Amino acid sequence: TLVLFYYNTELHSLLFGPTTKSVKVGNIANKCNTIFIIEFQPAGFYPLKKITQNDLTDKIIPFSMIDHSLNTAMEEIFKTSLSVDELLFQFEEVILQSILFQYPKELALAIKTIIQMEGVITSADLSEKTFYCPRHLNRLFNLHIGMSIKSFSRLVRINKSFQLLNENANTLDMVCE
């Protein structure tokens, strides 16, 4: 998750990696005048900077340490945009131009399938749906994402659980199911 925010009149940008521990969020966000959050799908950040999920796990990194020029461009957009629509359009344009590469088609298909299935799919079923052998897919996941198919699927399920928990109508029992 990439977060840009004003805190104590200073503009900050931080990249939050996936977390394996429970973390209380909102302490700074509740004190900010303005905050903008870009939440990447699991593995969605890798094509920008070739940093794997494992390399980002449990880390909060100033975005300027990852890409100073992209950080500067994004901060400038954040400072000068006159509307939310303008901000979104310009951020999308800058991010799309910054993509270093596209995933191999078989990996992109596997990622899309896992996300659509909300992480509830076995390697064998994924192999059948994508027409690639589990070993080859797992090798691609480890190379490009830094985790196995199983770990990636678990991360997608955890993200879905958080989404469900944020909806007031859902009970903890329902989310666990």
How would you characterize this protein structure?
- This protein is of the alpha+beta class.
- The protein is 53% helix and 11% strand.
- The chain has 10 helices and 4 strands.
- It has helices at residues 46-49, 53-56, 63-66, 68-80, 84-98, 105-116, 123-130, 134-144, 149-166, 172-176, and strands at 2-7, 10-16, 35-38, 60-62.
- It has a 4-stranded antiparallel β-sheet.
- Strand 1 (2-7) and strand 2 (10-16) form a beta hairpin.
- Helix 4 packs antiparallel against helix 5 (84-98) and helix 6 (105-116) packs across helix 7.
- The longest helix is centred in the last third of the chain and has 18 residues, at 149-166.
- The model has no long low-confidence stretch (mean pLDDT 86).
In short:
The protein is an alpha+beta fold. It has ten helices and four strands, in the order βββααβαααααααα.
Order of helices and strands: EEEHHEHHHHHHHH
**CA(first)-CA(last) distance:** 26 Å
Give the overall shape: globular
Number of helical segments with 4 or more residues: 10
Percent strand: 5-15%
Main sheet, how many strands, which sense, barrel? 4 strands, antiparallel
Number of strands: 4
Classify the secondary structure makeup into a structural class: alpha+beta
Spatial extent as radius of gyration: 18 Å
In order across it, which strands form the biggest sheet? 3-1-2-4
The low-confidence parts are: none
